[in-house]
Amino acid sequence: MPRPLARVLALLELLQSGGVRTVGELAGRLEVDERTVRRYVGHLLDLDVPVESVRGRYGGYRLAPGYRMPPLMLTDEEALAVLLGLVAGRRTGLATATATASETAAAKIRRVLPQRTRLRLDALLGSLAFTAPPGEAAPPDATVLLSIADAVGHHRPVAVRYTSGGGRSGERTLHPNGLVVHSGKLYVTATEPATGEERTFRLDRMSGVRVLPGSFTPPAGLPGPAQRLLTGFATAPYRHEVSLRIQGTAERIRTRLPPGVAVVTELPLTDGTDGADGAAPEAGRWCRAELRVERLDWLPGVLACLDLPFVVERPDALRGLVEDLARRLGESARRDP
């Protein structure tokens, strides 16, 4: 490719990245003088590329708003970022219900890349291995996702048809206030104006989203959407309500009992120590961990791995399971090799 043409395309790439670029900045990036930059801009105008001249102290050149560039111009790093993002989206479930959309998008990107770059990226994608299985949840419909996102951003009420986990379907009116990705699924946190309750809904169970007239004011003083989602999981109605007092910092306890499993709150210090005089931070710090679970049999092992003093406040059945685990561990430790 002749050098001047390569620089004209490089100028197009710089302008495509957005914002106003000063003549001095463009000259420095292209390693030419300012007069040559103006000549290159003239070449782009001859090709019907709408380059605008911005006057003033911070003036320069920019592309007209809303203009879509016919050629796709990506550096090697940008192409890698886009393709890895598409692969990650498919693997984690963060994709739309049109299953082929990410595949066709990746194919289009590869088709317009230089052969050398394409072959290198194909080699990388072909050699990737994943330790986690692909997301199993059905991805949400693209129209549903975009409509809910727009309603969140503009505080618009929506009407949706929602199918619960039990298979019951019905129309709901929601005030959506946040989108959250958790474990390969997309959720929306919302208020139901009819009851005033804060709820969480899976987007893949939604259909027929309609944005309603008017707007709403998001409730003040509430935690962020992600925290509300995790707290909702930790306090969902299950068979057993568990309460534990654990001697240690909340940060350490959450390594084994994360926010989506338990609500961990620090308790007031009882002896005035908090790692003073060289003591560990856990020396005088106790926390309460509350969780709701369908089964208790996995909790003793988690508490053993946590390796911190604890008190079972409820239920009594958990105490027996902890004692059983301690007995089995003791028997294994005493067993002859």
Any descriptors?
single chain, 337 residues, alpha+beta, five-stranded antiparallel beta sheet, four-stranded antiparallel beta sheet, 11 helices, 22% strand, elongated
> Based on the structure, what is the oligomeric state of the protein chains?
single chain
* Rg, Å, rounded: 29 Å
Order of helices and strands: HHHEEHHHHEEEEEHEHEEHEH
Count of individual helical segments:
11
Mean pLDDT: 82
Question: How is the secondary structure organized here?
Answer:
Layout: H1 3-16, H2 23-30, H3 34-46, E1 51-54, E2 60-63, H4 76-92, H5 101-112, H6 115-127, H7 142-154, E3 158-163, E4 169-182, E5 185-192, E6 197-202, E7 206-211, H8 225-234, E8 240-247, H9 250-253, E9 263-266, E10 286-293, H10 299-306, E11 310-314, H11 316-334
Antiparallel strand pairs: 1-2, 3-4, 3-7, 4-5, 5-6, 8-10, 8-11, 9-10
Helix pairs in contact: 1-3, 2-3, 4-5
